[in-house]
Design brief:
Mean pLDDT: 93
CATH class: Alpha Beta
Distance between the termini: 32 Å
Helix content: 25-40%
Shape: globular
CATH superfamily: NADH Oxidase
Number of domains: 1
Radius of gyration: 19 Å
CATH architecture: 3-Layer(aba) Sandwich
Length: 208
């Protein structure tokens, strides 16, 4: 699939069939994820892969309220045969930038204008989504509810120096229609409305 087709076709899929996913596609998605930009080549990320029915069910038990009586959204999401938790390590970034070639002598978090550890891991997650699209699969990126994170950490023994930045589900899209996402209710903003050239408040077209 051409790159522009991947960008155009990628969407959040919220309803899956129970058809298995080729493990080679998952491996490729993870390989591609490690090609994401990362400050200082810190590589402060890790990926928890859940690809057995028991592990996937354990995730939803920990992350959802009532998997025995799911609503439409949860019912569709739980059928995804692969769940990946991209996790970031702030400690890895702070340590990397205290090394000699970076010029800092401490690990003060205040030096960072934004949490690059989370941002870089999120970019890695996008590469997983794009790889799934390229393979003809469906995928979705969601967050872990704050009140469920402790349970998820405990269920899968996620170490304290890594933080899940979200959840990626991967599977074959179901034939039926699942829970509607925001694009079904909200129009996509025109590019001209969100691009500002020269200074803010003066959107122009590239040819202007």
């Amino acid at each position: 699939m051409e790159f522009q087709d991947v960008v155009r076709r990628r969407k959040m899929v919220r309803n899956y069939s129970t058809e298995a996913v080729d493990p080679a596609v998952v491996d490729l998605a993870l390989h591609n994820a490690t090609r994401a930009p990362n400050a200082g080549f810190s590589q402060g990320w890790a990926f928890l892969v859940l690809d057995t029915p028991d592990d996937v069910r354990r995730f939803w038990v920990a992350a959802a309220d009532d998997i025995d009586r799911p609503d439409e959204w949860l019912s569709g999401m739980m059928k995804a045969p692969v769940v990946i938790l991209p996790c970031s390590s702030k400690a890895a970034y702070l340590s990397r930038y205290a090394e000699g070639d970076k010029g800092w002598t401490d690990q003060d978090e205040a030096r960072w204008p934004k949490p690059f550890w989370d941002m870089d891991t999120a970019m890695a997650a996008l590469l997983i989504l794009q790889t799934a699209t390229d393979a003809g699969l469906g995928s979705c990126f969601i967050g872990i509810p704050p009140d469920k994170e402790t349970a998820v950490r405990s269920a899968f023994e996620i170490p304290a120096n890594f933080d899940p930045v979200g959840v990626v589900t991967i599977g074959h899209p179901a034939a039926g229609v699942g829970a509607k996402g925001s694009p079904a209710r909200r129009a996509r903003k025109p590019v001209a409305d969100v691009v500002h050239r020269g200074r803010w408040g003066h959107p122009t077209s590239p040819s202007a």
